[in-house]
Structures
1.
Amino acid sequence: MNADEEMGRRFPVGRGPAGSGRRGEGAFTLIELLVATAVFMVLVLVLASISNQAVSTWSRSENKSDLREAARAAINVMGSELRQAVLPVSRGEQNGPQFVINPASVSDAFKNRDAVFWQAPIATSRSRGDLAVVGYFVRREGNLWKLCRLFVNPDDAEYALRGTGPWVDDGLLNSKAPGTEASNLQGVFLENVPGMWVKAYSDAVTPYASYDSRLAQRLPSRVEVSLALLDKAGAERVASGQVVLPEARNCADLATFLNQLPEAIRGNVQSVTVNVSFLF
C-alpha cells in the first residue's frame, strides 16, 4: 500500500486531520453560531415582553377587583346606616341632629360634591341613648381625596342633641372625622374617592335641589349615593400631577364627572351607587 492509499484509508473523503481546514459533517461555522445566538436572543426578548404584559394585565385586573370590592363594601355600609336614619321627636328643632345634605354650617372644603349627615340608633355607647350622629363627606388634601365618616355617640362631649349652635360644623368634622386612619369608626373610611354625590328624591321621583328635614319635616322618599373611585395606579398619576381630574363640586352628578374625565385616566376610575328608600 503506497502513501496515498494509506492516507485515504485513515482520512476518508470529506474529513481530514486536525488543522486540515476542512469542515467536519454536523459542525457549524462562526457565522451560523452568531445567527443562531441572535435569533435566540430575539425569542427571549419576545417571550419576556409577553410575560411582562401578562403580569401587568393580571396586576391591573387584581387592582380593579380589589377596588371594586372595597367600593362595594363601603357603599353597603353607607346604605345600611342610611336605612336607619330617623328624625328627632321635635322635627322642627333647628339645632339638633336632622337629615341634611350640604348644611350651611359646613364649609365647601368638605363638599366634594356633597356631604350628608343624619342621626340613627346605632350608638356603640348607650349610657345616654342610642341615637348617634352619622355622616359622610369627601376631604381633599392637595391631589388626594378621602371619603371620611363622622360618628359621634350620644354620651360624647361634642354631641349636641339640643344646643345653641349648629350640631355639625367644620370643627366637629376636624375633631371627629380627621383625614387620618379611622379610629373608633371615625375618620378616613375609603381613600382615593374624588367625588360623592347625594340626591334626595320626593314622592314624585323628582330630586330636590337641596334637602334639610327641618324644612321638609320628614325624610325624603329616596336617597341616592354615588361614589367615584380611583385605583392605585390612577391615584399615583393624579397625585404626581400627570393627570388633572375635573372638580366634583362643579359636576351636577356622577355621569357628568365621568364624561369630563381625561381619556388617559378613564380606565383607572370606577363608580358605585346605592339607593335607599324610606317608608312612612
2.
Amino acid sequence: MQLAGTLEEAGEIIRDSTMFVNESFLIADGKTGKAIVVEKSPERCEVREPEGDRIVCANHFLSPVFQRDARNLAYMEEGTSVVRLARATEWVEAHKGEITPEAAVSYVRDRKVPGVNEPVVGNAAAINMLAATHAVVMDVTDGVMWVSAAPHQLGAFVPFGLDNFEAPEGKPIFPEDPLLNDEEYANYLASLAALESARSQFMAHDLDNAIQDCQNALSLNETDYRAHALMAEIEFARGDAESARAHIAAARALHVAYGHEREALDALSQAIDGQDARE
C-alpha cells in the first residue's frame, strides 16, 4: 500500500491481493481530500464511494454486491459491526464540520451502546470495547498521525509525522482518558478476574462461590451484562426463577453484544418458562 500514489492504485493493489477472510480497507488521499472503502472477500472486491462529504466504515460490507453474501450476513447477525457503524454514523453527523484530531480521539474512546444512557465499560458493541491494543487518528491532509499509548485507546495519543515518523512541530499530545485517572479501569480489570472465577466455580458446580464471585464482578462493574447473564444461569441452577428472570432483564437492558449471547439468554428464559409450566 505504501507504493500507491493514488486511491485508484491503492484499490488495484487490494483487488490483486489474495484474501482468506472478508476485510474492509478505508483509504484516504490527503492531496485530493477524498476517501473510499474497498470491500474485499476471497471471491469479490468492490469499491464504496463517499455518501456526500463523508464515508463511514465498520467491519461488515455495504456494497450492493454483498447484500446477499452469506458470510457477510452471518457476520452482521452475530457480531457488533452493525451497532458500531450506527454509532459511528451518529457521531459523524453530530460533529459535522467540527471533526478535529482532538474530536477524533474522543470518538475512538466512545463507550456508548444502544439503550444505555451512561457510557459502559468493556462492552464489545461500543466503539471502545477495551480490546484493541491501540488506536490511530490520522490527519492525512496535514500528514500527521496520533497513536495511543497502552492500554487500548486510553493512553495518551502521541503525534508522528507520516513522512519521517518524528514528532511534528506544534502538534499536541492528547492526554490519557480520564477513565485511567480514577478507580474505574482498575475495577474493570478486577471485575474480569472475578467473572472468570465465577464461571470456573459455576462449571465446577460450586454455586455458592460462583454467585459470590459474580456479585463481586457486578459490584466492580455494574455495566457488564455478562455478569448479569451468568448470575441468571446460577440463579436458575439454584432454583430461583424470579432472580434468574431479573438478571436476564438486567443483562438485556445493558445491550447484549453478540448474537449467540442473545440466543443463550432467550433459551434460558424459555427454560425458566418451561419449568414454571410444569410446576
